[in-house]
Amino acid sequence: MKYLSSLLILFLFASCQITETITINPDGSGDVIVEQLREENSYMQLAGEEYSKENIFQDTTYIFQDYITKYKANFVKYKPEEQQLFQKYANVKAHIKRSSYEKEFRSIFSLQFNKVSEIPDLFKTEDYASDIQHNYALEAENHYFRIEYAFDGKIFKRSVSIINKAELEKAKRESEQFVAKYGASNLVQTYTLKYHFPKNIKYVSNLKAIINSDKKSLILEFLISDFLRDPEVTNLEVVLE
What we know:
Layout: H1 6-13, E1 16-24, E2 30-38, H2 40-47, E3 57-63, H3 64-70, H4 72-75, H5 80-87, E4 93-99, E5 104-113, H6 125-134, E6 145-151, E7 155-162, H7 165-182, E8 190-196, E9 201-204, E10 210-211, E11 217-223, H8 224-229, E12 236-240
Parallel strand pairs: 1-8
Antiparallel strand pairs: 1-2, 2-5, 3-4, 4-5, 6-7, 7-12, 8-11, 9-12, 10-11
């Protein structure tokens, strides 16, 4: 199966901590880091007796361009617009560590950008690398949302749009099943946005956002299950002075 079902994604992410950090410099350049860390106590509650049976070890670091270069014969088969999409990930660095022995499951995706609009939807990095490696058709993907970013020097926008309503409805149904079964469990499933700006923050669209004492940075937390059920809840607009 090319992509995981939304129920399995929810199962994995409901025991996970995700932190998305963006730092924007005065000239509009900056860096973005998305880190996914499995929270072992939560995952153990979900996995049950299977937890002790894990036998996994992976420690991989790569630049997405490595896949474009190594599998060029596959890459050139994609439509021009698909190649353009992949190229947006070219400079993304990925570090994947999955160790059942050390009980460390961590994925880190990072990028240094010249302008905010260059930031890709980093959650899809591994999927797209696999696409190129195995010559999978993008039309077959079941991603149902897209994350995009924009910044004009004063207004920053994190925009999440639904691109597959059928998959969204499927995710909602499976989320309800998950909550019915595991809702009483004390699971760590935090999705944290940490944004740093070159000027003081004047306005934030989400009232739950906490502006730090430096007035130039903020923190906003969601539940991952809420994000997967309704990705648009993480839309955000920040206006600077």
